[in-house]
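Sequence in, structure out.
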Amino acid sequence: MRVSGAVSPDLTGARAIRIRVPATTSNLGPAFDAVGLALQLYLLVEVRRSDRAHSSLEFSGEDERLVPRDETNLIWQAMEEMARRHGKKLPSFDARVANQIPITKGLGSSAAACLAAAAGADFLCSLALPREEWLRFATELEGHPDNAAPALYGGLVATIGGETLLCSRAPFPSHWTVVTVTPELELATKKARAVLPAEVSHSDAVFNVQRTAFLMSQLIRGRTDGLREAMRDRLHQPYRSPLLPGLEEILAMDPRDGLIGLALSGAGSTVIALADSNERSIAAQISRIFAGHGLKATERLLKADNLGLTIEVLN
């Protein structure tokens, strides 16, 4: 049995579950801290109840050298925090993590981990919480919902954070490709946020509001015209360009067949291009620009994930 993030699963009597959480790209250019898109690249976490006194966690996959296997692991810590918030002590468990999402590179790795932890703690502690509580928990840990919401619900999700948490979801065109090019450069979100100005001009705010409105209107209808202009931004990408060699050139790439639009993915360092053809040549051009600045890069041609977080009950 597998259920998506749109349904609260019944895990009564289950000994183990497998949680699958998609990667995400956020902002899409102008929609800073407001819009995210789920991608078919996954964090897989198998959580099993244990009769032993001590818990264990195994990790394999992308950037595994960066990930601890003990109580300092983000998933482990977040599961304990989720249990504590609901007046429970996290019971012993065995977790196996298989990761496809680059870590600290702008594809929602921490949001995926926090959501997986929320679902895992819910299972282990028999909390039976509505899925909105998983999202609220992940948002509190992340600081904003623009990655966690699409990771949970799938598709293209616009969000409002703060005391009132609101999400509006739409499916993303299945025939479009999200080209992701990830240079070998870790760019911590904290560092990328530190370079942003405390205030912006009225004209820059209007510039982004106009493009965000147009961008969302076109995306939900699957229209490509005007999206290159609509994905331009003045609130964060210009300030982050000095942290990522080549970004300014990539965002200014000449138009070519198939290229719909370009943006920094989240806080970076991954860059995304929306495309409806010639995906490989678009990816290669972005990689060449990074290479010109001494950065090797990994290219991925991804489709949108319109399911979001899924849970499978294991034997």
